[in-house]
Design brief:
The structure is a single chain. The chain is α/β, with parallel strands linked by helices. The protein has 2 domains: 255 residues, Dihydropteroate synthase-like (TIM Barrel), CATH 3.20.20; 98 residues, 2-Layer Sandwich (Sulfite Reductase Hemoprotein, domain 1). It is built from 12 helices and 15 strands. A hairpin with a 3-residue loop joins strand 13 and strand 14. It is globular and about 60 Å long. The mean pLDDT is 94.
Length: 378
């Protein structure tokens, strides 16, 4: 049920991705990178679950030092997530097999340099060290120029960003790259990846529904996107992003392989027509950028506390870090993004303040009740 894919083959060290090669499955370490022992344990746990690639986030010099220690103790294929600091590419390159950059984050640093100059730097590092590149576009962090250029079509904004970056990389004569286009809404993931694949059928795609949340809803959202895309021959590698306790992180890999196997054998799961109705909780899967592990418990508590509002069309986003948190919560009715000691509460794009972990649930409930009351009156 998965038709032949048209993409070219790229290589991440010894792993071939794209074309007729098996669909690769990956996951991401959820621990703080600087906690070498915990992160190394995550890497081994994820690898033992059958992952082809393990991603680690790096956000500063201390993370790079920790990454070097981790690399010395594992042969796993490592991908580094550069996040907002593309300049770290040269420091991490000796320790990884692939780098991931987000086009929406390149404007943050060295504003005097053009985007093509920054892309050329990343490609130069990849060439020098024999690395692959992922151009990772997230709907919640699209570069401002694309939002301005396509104010009425958010899908086109993220697709065009990906296409333009592919063109930059192509001009530099680099081929070992792939693209990911992600959102927390599987419908947008489907539409955006279909559009991109139609424009660039040669470029391998990494699939994922970002901030899918907790099982079982997170698995359902992911399955919806993967079934619709893989059955079209779209998708060469994937990740299932779930909010899970650290010790259960291997389940992302298990679920990913199960979905692939189901689609290959024609086992599709029907989606209830009202699946998108009612309360929608978005939660990120956690990674090394999370500065307080209480975020995972908070996500579970939000899910439990808000059950009484299950019939209302309200979206609540629970994000674990300051990197993606502010932007990824903008489109939610109510958003939480977590810092070391406080949780920032938002109503749409409006900041409502920062609250201690032990009081945020009560404050969230106040805002949720007010929102429900307002809608009932309307």
């Amino acid at each position: 049920m998965i038709p032949p894919r048209k993409t070219r083959t790229i290589h991440v060290r010894d792993l071939a991705i794209g074309g007729s090669n098996p669909i690769a499955v990956q996951s991401m370490a959820a621990t703080r990178t600087q906690d070498v022992a915990a992160t190394l344990r995550q890497v081994r746990l994820i690898e033992a679950a059958g992952a082809d690639l393990v991603r680690i986030a790096v956000d500063g010099a201390k993370d790079v030092e920790a990454l070097a220690e981790i690399r010395a103790q594992t042969t796993a294929r490592l991908v580094v997530d550069l996040q907002e600091n593309y300049r770290l590419a040269g420091s991490v390159a000796p320790h990884v097999d692939k780098i991931r950059y987000n086009p929406g984050h390149l404007h943050h640093h060295e504003r005097e340099k053009s985007i093509p100059e920054k892309v050329a730097y990343l490609v130069g590092i990849a060439k020098e060290h024999g690395l692959a590149i992922r151009i990772g576009v997230n709907a919640g962090s699209v570069a401002p120029e694309y939002r301005e250029r396509y104010p009425e079509d958010g899908v086109e904004a993220i697709v065009r960003s990906a296409l333009d970056h592919c063109a930059m990389v192509d001009e530099l004569g680099f081929r070992d790259y792939l693209v990911s286009i992600k959102d927390s809404d599987p419908r947008l993931v489907i539409e955006a990846n279909v559009r991109f694949a139609e424009a660039r059928p040669d470029v391998p795609l990494h699939l994922g529904v970002t901030e899918a949340g907790m099982p079982p809803d997170g698995v359902i959202k992911t399955r919806i996107a993967f079934e619709q895309l893989l059955s079209r021959g779209i998708g060469d590698t994937l990740r299932v992003s779930l909010t899970l306790p650290f010790d259960d992180k291997g389940k992302e890999v298990e679920v990913g392989r199960q979905i692939i196997d189901d689609i290959e054998h024609g086992r599709f799961r029907s989606v209830p027509p009202n699946f998108y109705d009612g309360l929608n909780i978005i939660a990120c899967p956690s990674c090394s950028r999370v500065e307080n592990e209480a975020f995972i418990d908070l996500a579970q508590e939000v899910k439990e506390m808000t059950k009484y509002a299950s019939d209302y069309d309200v979206t609540i986003a629970v994000m674990g870090c300051r990197v993606n948190g502010p932007g990824e919560t903008d489109d939610a009715d109510l958003g939480l993004w977590c810092g070391p000691n406080y949780v920032n509460l938002k109503k749409g794009p409006v900041d409502l303040g920062a609250f201690p972990y032990d009081t945020i649930l009560g404050r969230l409930k106040e805002e949720l009740d007010a929102l429900i009351s307002q809608r009932n009156q309307g």
